[in-house]
Write a structure and sequence with these properties.
globular, 7 helices, Chalcone isomerase
């Protein structure tokens, strides 16, 4: 009886810690960032026309299924982008800029002018991303937004507000892709 109970517990635990896989990309259920273990909140594929561009995943301190709850969360966060196809930094930056403009007023954009410029500089340094490349956008309390490409830190934008600017690309009122927003909010 003990063996059966142990086997059942092992299967339950091993099943709950399995990574999600999308388009051949294994996404861990938990990642460590700063002093926090973040859980996979949701993940999906960004598609444009008939092309799958990247898999993206959202990690939070605790699962949330409402965009307002994610945006008001003051804890550490991570957006991970796993590229499925090659893309130039200019095209990626254009899509980021478009997502940011679509979800912010002219007044809000003017107030973020410095942060947006720093983000543009960081993105232009990437030159070209290839299939298999990974970008991490990490938010850490006291540090701000960090941009990592393939494990190398590309730049940091201080403060707590810019990260939500990025999150709104995927979770704002006018997300880059509505079904991706739902998947990032736990709809897998």
């Amino acid at each position: 009886m003990k063996k059966k109970l142990l086997c059942a517990m092992f299967l339950l635990v091993s099943h709950s810690t399995q990574a999600v896989e999308l388009k051949g990309v294994a996404l861990p259920d938990v990642v460590h960032l700063g002093n926090s273990n973040l859980v996979l909140n949701g993940a999906g594929v960004r598609s444009k026309f008939i092309f799958d561009l990247y898999v993206t995943a959202l990690y939070l301190n605790a699962k949330k299924n409402m965009a307002t709850a994610v945006l008001s969360d003051l804890g550490e966060k991570r957006i991970a982008m796993y590229f499925l196809d090659d893309i130039s930094a200019a095209n990626l930056l254009y899509s980021f800029d478009e997502g940011i403009r679509d979800n912010h007023s002219a007044t809000e954009l003017a107030a973020m002018k410095e942060e947006l410029h720093k983000f543009d500089v960081i993105c232009h340094r990437m030159v070209r991303l290839k299939a298999g490349d990974v970008i991490l956008f990490d938010y850490q309390i006291g540090t701000g937004t960090q941009v990592w490409v393939n494990g190398g830190l590309r730049g940091t934008i201080a403060g707590s507000t810019f990260y939500n600017t990025l999150l709104k690309i995927w979770l704002g009122e006018k997300p880059v892709q509505q079904d991706l927003k739902l998947k990032l909010l736990g709809g897998f």
